[in-house]
Design a protein that fits this description.
Layout (H helix, E strand, L loop, with lengths): L10 H51 L6 E3 L5 E4 L5 E5 L2 E2 L4 H4 L12 E3 L5 E7 L2 E6 L7 E6 L1 H4 L4 E6 L4
Antiparallel strand pairs: 1-2, 2-3, 3-4, 5-6, 6-7, 7-8, 8-9
Keywords: Membrane, Transmembrane, Transmembrane helix
Pfam families: N_methyl
Protein name: Prepilin-type N-terminal cleavage/methylation domain-containing protein
């Protein structure tokens, strides 16, 4: 009687291969999520830089009297770009205008309002008199967001900062 020939893999070998493939898939998947979050944080960081540049331009343009208009309620508006007007609060860009002036939305947010960007990638919210924020809709809100701090209702120059877990 001849010895029995092996016609395939044993169950233990198959289980070992499946386990190795599962571990590899998990590593690749977690790395992909990390890269995606890093890319989204980079986009928010770019928006922060754009907002800082806009704030410098607003500071310069508000010195030109023909660029600032005051309505009958005492609200000030700055003629900034393409004849669009943006609201000022105590001489600074209003927190309700941050997504509007960056071109993410077509209009300013309402006070204490929330508004999604025209492309649906961002969510903007006027949280309270001290700050507004921009978050990416695909990014967990607890991870990272861009906050426009207005420091006790504009008693200091507002600051755009990334907050949350923004570093990898």
């Amino acid at each position: 009687m001849k010895g029995r020939q092996q016609g395939g893999f044993t169950l233990i070998e198959l289980v070992a291969v499946v386990v190795v493939l599962a571990v590899l898939a998990l590593v690749v998947y977690s790395r992909q999520i990390s890269l995606r979050q890093d890319a989204q944080v980079a986009v928010l960081n770019e928006l922060r830089g754009q907002l800082q540049q806009v704030m410098v331009q607003v500071d310069t343009l508000k010195q030109v009297p023909s660029r600032v208009r005051t309505d009958s309620n005492g609200n000030q508006y700055l003629s900034y770009d393409n004849n669009k007007e943006y609201r000022l609060e105590k001489g600074y860009l209003s927190r309700v205008e941050i997504c509007h002036i960056l071109g993410l939305t077509d209009t300013a947010m309402s006070s204490n309002g929330k508004q999604d960007s025209t492309d649906g990638r961002f969510s903007c919210k006027d949280e309270n008199r001290d700050f507004a924020w921009i978050r990416m809709t695909g990014l967990d809100s607890s991870v990272c967001y861009l906050r426009y701090k207005t420091f006790n209702n504009y008693t200091q120059r507002p600051q755009p900062v990334l907050e949350g877990e923004c570093s990898s």
